[in-house]
Amino acid sequence: MKSNSALKELSIASHRKLRGKIGIVSKAPLRSQNDLKIYYTPGVGAVAAYLATHKKEARDLTMKGNAVAVISDGSRVLGLGNIGPEAALPVMEGKAMIFKEFAGIDAFPIVLDTQDVGEIVKTIRYISPAFGAINLEDIAAPRCFEIEKQLQKILPLFVMHDDQHATAIAVLAGLINAFKVVKKNLKTSKIVVIGAGAAGSATAKLLVAYGARNVVVVDEKGILSAKRKGLNLYQKELAAMTNKKNVQGTLQGALLGADAMVGLSAPNIVKSGDVKRMAVKSIVFALANPVPEIMPQDAKVGGAFIVATGRSDFENQVNNALVFPGVFRGALDHRVKKITWDMKIRAAKVLASLVKKPTPRAIVPSVFDPRVVKALASVIQ
Amino acid sequence: MKSNSALKELSIASHRKLRGKIGIVSKAPLRSQNDLKIYYTPGVGAVAAYLATHKKEARDLTMKGNAVAVISDGSRVLGLGNIGPEAALPVMEGKAMIFKEFAGIDAFPIVLDTQDVGEIVKTIRYISPAFGAINLEDIAAPRCFEIEKQLQKILPLFVMHDDQHATAIAVLAGLINAFKVVKKNLKTSKIVVIGAGAAGSATAKLLVAYGARNVVVVDEKGILSAKRKGLNLYQKELAAMTNKKNVQGTLQGALLGADAMVGLSAPNIVKSGDVKRMAVKSIVFALANPVPEIMPQDAKVGGAFIVATGRSDFENQVNNALVFPGVFRGALDHRVKKITWDMKIRAAKVLASLVKKPTPRAIVPSVFDPRVVKALASVIQ
């Protein structure tokens, strides 16, 4: 593994050299007047006139049918926080590369110079006609919940906030196999989710929907409990769904005797000593990006039996990149409007099932496994 | 030449087969964990963090430096009128193909589900951070003037309404050479511009800026004159710049003795008999798309000496496709914020100069001439 600062330098230099990781490609040659006649004027006039009266066929005659807008307001980029639209762009381009290379989807990065819910919703509505689906990315909670909900109501398109649903699916798939490895029952084990933002809350909810009965969510103020004051609407809902015993306390308190922890929060907030408080054969998912809650070697020092991160340079990469290409492939191909709980559970199960014999070092398939996209697309319908 | 209906069918079938004329391409391979480390997480985190404090370098480290948003509200698509965003999409994709194939520019089609000036301006502002330039397309007058003006004021980007400026440059280039062929003086000849929309008014103004002293604009209500009632702000300005003698009357009246006519209006509104009223060695540019004001054979029956259309299937294609790739190449490369009158005149002259010996059948270079983009880009600075 390259040193951290060497990788940073290499990455910045590689981006500077490419000047953009994605580009536009023409799907037909433009080499003669005849090509122009067909694809530009006058031929395109017939297509435009036809679509004026057959609007629904835009998915068949234009880019729309295979196009996803990857949209961020830059308010919660990776674990880096609110760094704005320009800084979010290379991340969105990275998503677009992954969409293309793994699922053949044309993803168009759009970064927004507004962080107002109403303005974001209107902007996305206005630009929606060219796209077959909308992928919301790296938008801070609780704004992201409201934006997703409103767009799902007004747009005749698949709209999904990746950081919520794709992350939750990847985590559930990873936990299904991790619990198989440690021979414990996921549904009755204690699972601590660190982070109550987009990813943390969606993951906790999906675990509960799957049947997990002992999920505890912790945020920067401690354990999320219905008794805690000052909760917003979304936090109240989450507290009611998890932590049935209304336990209160700190992260360290929550980790006592926990079978698994799922970090979807901030860098370096978990120490080896915290991991030591967990149950035997503990499962540690430290998924903050690019710097996890605890580095794998430190988690192991604390006694973790299985460790996963969101990164590409450690084993067990539990990252939404494993999920979003296949989910959007399925949504576009089957013209799905909204992802349901049932679809998410089926997606997690099918993803887990691709690892025939899970081991501590291999609980999820590789993002390069060509079966992943197909399997996920098949259950999104 | 294929029959009209055969071409229409071929074009629709070709679009249906391609399912979109453009797509996204990844500029680097994603084949290994190492690739993901550099372009996705964790490496991209370093790029995002760097851009958070070096926003201006987004042009060097992301797609922004080579990216143009091609934006339409579908209110004035070709000569087809207000047919909406979905129907405008194949035209925008055609523009994107041309941008890529001729100028290596990554153009992203965006079609808007609003035709409100304020909402369009806001939407474009919000989505602007990913783009190095904004190309407005097929937006009806007078809305297009207001949108362009407001965006030029608020955005730190090159913003240009193609139908105005690129068309005007192509027409002026064509007329410079056409007048050379007929051995008349453009500046003192009578030039009738049909259409007072985006293209018509920008063309008339550029002709005046170039030095043409006898330009008359005609719209569907007849000759545009300062004496005519009910003119909007933009029409008043145009009337004051042209038609110094305040002539009133019909299109037929305007064409009497005209040396050139430039149609930027609607299909089939000029007859052979109308062309007969023009001066000897008349120049007829019938540029409405896809169906011109008069078909070339009918213009010739009326005695036209030089005929041009906007189409790819006749000689003398005077189309903004000849201009926008080079203009945007220059604007991106030289970080130009606004196109000036001087740049437009230099662009028209340099475009005309590429035809060493103009003839009645060859007044403009081919869009396939590789010198075109370079020559235009060199004067946009």
Describe the structure.
The structure is a homodimer of 381-residue chains. The first copy, chain A, contains 16 helices and 11 strands. Chain A is an alpha/beta fold and 381 residues long. In chain A, strand 7 (214-219) and strand 8 form a beta hairpin. Chain A is globular, with a radius of gyration of 22 Å. The model of chain A has no long low-confidence stretch (mean pLDDT 96). Chain A has helices at 4-18, 33-39, 43-53, 58-61, 85-103, 117-127, 143-154, 162-182, 198-210, 233-241, 251-255, 272-276, 296-301, 324-333, 341-353, 371-379, and strands spanning 22-26, 67-72, 106-111, 133-136, 158-161, 190-194, 214-219, 222-223, 260-263, 283-286, 306-309. In chain A, helix 5 (85-103) crosses helix 14, helix 6 (117-127) runs parallel beside helix 7 and helix 8 packs across helix 9. In chain A, 60% of the residues are buried. In chain A, the strands form 2 sheets. Chain A has a 6-stranded mixed beta sheet with strand order 8-7-6-9-10-11. A 4-stranded parallel beta sheet of chain A has the order 3-2-4-5, with helices on both faces. The longest helix of chain A is centred in the middle third of the chain and has 21 residues, at 162-182. Chains A and B meet through helix 1, strand 1, helix 2, helix 3 and helix 4 of A and helix 1, strand 1, helix 2, helix 3 and helix 4 of B. Strand 1 of chain A pairs antiparallel with strand 1 (22-26) of chain B.
